[in-house]
């Protein structure tokens, strides 16, 4: 072997890293080689005088000496190998500890910051004192104790009181204090999820599985938090979820939050032993209902909450919970539909909530004292918000119709039952006895908004010379009462139309098709909604 080849072999040997420099490694190799040569030379000299059949006794001693030297050399190599592996494992463990600290902003090490390297560690962390005491000699985090550490962090009532400096820097860092001391655990877990995602894109390949494991740990802990919120003191988990989504929409990072929620929802669906998915998510809709009912048409916050509901109507699992949640307590009472989550949205309007009562009404309070220009500006402002409002309602209905056959059937059933329960709005006494009317039926605003949204659904097939309009089947209106299963099969969700007065009485029983298309049902629903909405207004 040439010197050049020998040098290449040494430089490529992993154990060369244990020496201060490549020159030291070469020197060590040269000494070992020289010792072997000397031992081999002794063997050769001793062998030359003896070429007979019988060898001297001293030959065995030389042979044993060489063997012992080789054993010692093998032992030294093994020691170096063990030392290298030990240092490599120590380095990996240190990197894992730093990575966990960066993701979860927690630590078991409260030593003097000046003694730490400060490289790759966050400036502020929550010190888990009780866990550090339990582990005694271990002041680092690893994949065996990180789950316990995160759970301990979630149980802290005031994590801000447990913050410690991880570096010797004396610069005030408010964002580091805020992130590490986050008291809302749902928001904290979301932030950990984001930091874990960032680590996955940055860490070397040997640390990648651990970063992914930390990311999954944030999802599993969020699932636990939602399934058993009662064990976390002074934490309103569902309020935090809504607030997180609200902040994300306003801060233009809603996609990041929905990515996190998608994984949490999937984990909840897979584990429904403690609570079913609807049981977990119904409190979220309760919060939205409570907040939306107090909002006005021209409040920007209303449209942020509607964006949250738009996401829920696009997400298949949340949409199922939504259509179940909006079912009224008494389906035969028309006014009950107005009290559901979808109903309170439809009831938002610039109209007086109670006809004749102008108190707490935010529009046209003093029209006689306002100039025509001021009135026009206010009208234009209202029209702008109404257009946006009707677009949001239309998108919600469209999402539910297109998402799955199940959500389509549920929302059409809701609409059909709602119209049937409010059919009494067209009776003569409706305007003469307003006290009874408002206890039995939904408001004018409810029907005007619903009619506007349904008209938008009809737009694609209501254009001049539309071929789809010709697929409308008028026999839909002559159908007799059907049970729920027949309605689902035939796509018929309106009820009681056969009792309406016909302009042209049927001479004979029409031939009914196996089922009806969405064009037919949309047109019938829209026409009847407009009829119920405008009839009472025109007959005043």
TrEMBL record:
It is an enzyme of class 2 (transferase). It catalyses: S-ubiquitinyl-[E2 ubiquitin-conjugating enzyme]-L-cysteine + [acceptor protein]-L-lysine = [E2 ubiquitin-conjugating enzyme]-L-cysteine + N(6)-ubiquitinyl-[acceptor protein]-L-lysine. It comes from the Eukaryota. Residues 342-538 form the Ubiquitin conjugation factor E4 core domain. Belongs to the ubiquitin conjugation factor E4 family. This is Ubiquitin conjugation factor E4. It comes from Rousettus aegyptiacus. InterPro entries: Ub_conjug_fac_E4_core, UBE4. Pathway: Protein modification; protein ubiquitination. Its EC number is 2.3.2.27. The U-box domain is required for the ubiquitin protein ligase activity. One of its GO terms (molecular function) is ubiquitin-ubiquitin ligase activity.
């Amino acid at each position: 072997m040439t010197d050049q080849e020998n040098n290449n072999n040494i430089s490529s040997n992993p154990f060369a890293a244990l020496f201060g420099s490549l020159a030291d490694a070469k020197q060590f190799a040269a000494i070992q080689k020289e010792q072997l040569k000397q031992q081999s030379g002794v063997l050769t000299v001793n062998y030359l005088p003896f070429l007979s059949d019988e060898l001297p006794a001293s030959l065995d001693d030389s042979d044993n000496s060489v063997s012992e030297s080789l054993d010692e050399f093998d032992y030294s190599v093994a020691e170096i190998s063990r030392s290298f592996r030990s240092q490599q494992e120590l380095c990996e463990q240190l990197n894992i500890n730093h990575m966990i600290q960066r993701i979860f902003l927690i630590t078991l090490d409260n030593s003097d910051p000046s003694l730490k390297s400060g490289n790759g560690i966050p400036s502020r962390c929550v010190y888990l004192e009780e866990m550090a005491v339990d582990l005694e000699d271990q002041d680092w985090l690893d994949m065996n104790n990180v789950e316990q550490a995160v759970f301990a962090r979630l149980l802290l009532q005031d994590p801000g009181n447990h913050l410690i400096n991880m570096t010797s820097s004396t610069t005030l860092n408010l964002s580091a204090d805020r992130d590490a001391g986050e008291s809302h655990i749902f928001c904290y877990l979301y932030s950990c999820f984001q930091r874990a995602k960032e680590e996955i894109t940055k860490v070397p390949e040997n640390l990648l599985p651990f970063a992914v494991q930390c990311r999954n740990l944030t999802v599993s802990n969020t699932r636990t938090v939602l399934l058993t919120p009662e064990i976390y003191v002074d934490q309103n988990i569902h309020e935090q979820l809504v607030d997180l989504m609200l902040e994300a929409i306003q801060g233009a990072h809603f996609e990041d939050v929905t990515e996190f929620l998608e994984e949490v929802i999937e984990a909840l669906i897979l584990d429904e032993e403690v609570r079913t998915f609807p049981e977990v998510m119904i409190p979220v809709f309760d919060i939205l209902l409570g907040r939306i009912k107090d909002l006005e048409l021209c409040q920007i916050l209303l449209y942020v909450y509607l964006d949250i509901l738009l996401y829920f109507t696009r997400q298949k699992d949340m949409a199922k919970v939504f259509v179940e949640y909006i079912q009224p307590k008494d389906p035969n009472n028309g006014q009950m539909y107005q009290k559901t989550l979808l109903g309170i949205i439809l009831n938002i309007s610039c109209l007086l909530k109670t006809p004749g009562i102008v108190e707490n009404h935010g529009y046209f309070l003093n029209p006689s004292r306002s100039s025509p220009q001021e009135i026009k500006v206010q009208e234009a402002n209202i029209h702008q918000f109404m257009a946006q409002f009707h677009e949001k309602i239309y998108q919600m209905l469209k999402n539910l119709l297109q998402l799955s056959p199940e959500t389509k059937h549920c929302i059409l059933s809701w609409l059909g039952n709602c119209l049937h329960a409010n059919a009494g709005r067209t009776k003569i006494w409706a305007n003469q006895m307003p006290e009874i009317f408002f206890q039995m039926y939904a408001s004018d605003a409810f029907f005007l908004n619903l009619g506007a949204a349904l008209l938008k659904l009809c737009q694609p097939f209501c254009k001049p010379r539309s071929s789809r309009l010709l697929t409308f089947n008028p026999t839909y209106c002559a159908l007799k009462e059907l049970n729920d299963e027949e309605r689902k099969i035939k796509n018929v969700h309106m009820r009681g139309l056969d009792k309406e007065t016909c302009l042209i009485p049927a001479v004979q029983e029409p031939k009914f098709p196996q089922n009806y298309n969405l064009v037919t049902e949309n047109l019938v629903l829209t026409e009847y909604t407009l009829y119920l909405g405008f009839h009472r207004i025109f007959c005043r």
